[in-house]
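Re: beginner question about structure tokens

> Can someone show what the tokenized structure looks like for a real chain? I only ever see the sequence side.

Sure, here's an example I had lying around. Input first:
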Amino acid sequence: MFDAEQLAFANQLRKDTLVEGLGITYIPSTPGTFAATMPVDRRTFQPMGLLHGGATAALAETLGSMGSAMLVDREKFAVVGVELNANHLKSVRSGTVTATGTLLHKGRTTHVWDIRVNNEAGELIAVCRLTNVVITLKQ
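And the corresponding structure tokens:
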């Protein structure tokens, strides 16, 4: 969905944010999708030593929000997430998870993303749906 230059731009925006703190990195993906990885480590654990559901949700919202932001004219519009649903299907104790988003709806004022999160074995660990609203910036 996005070329190497756009991925580099997205990865530059991570600095000094939650995105950088969680180790989320945007990566190349198949046509029509947008993807990012996140390590499963002390930054993303819950107290039981498993991937925290909130970290998974943050990964999904990060991916879909950046995806939408890269689809609009950022000098005229901003994108904000207004609803995120996450179903956690399988636990993860180590490694890396990959979120892959598919834009289901690109309207003038709303974008809806379907985001699948997989572990390193390719097993589905979470299914997420994100709705973003596109707002006009004040000039």
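Each token stands for a local structural state, so reading them left to right follows the chain. Strands lie at 25-27, 33-40, 77-88, 95-106, 110-118, 124-136.
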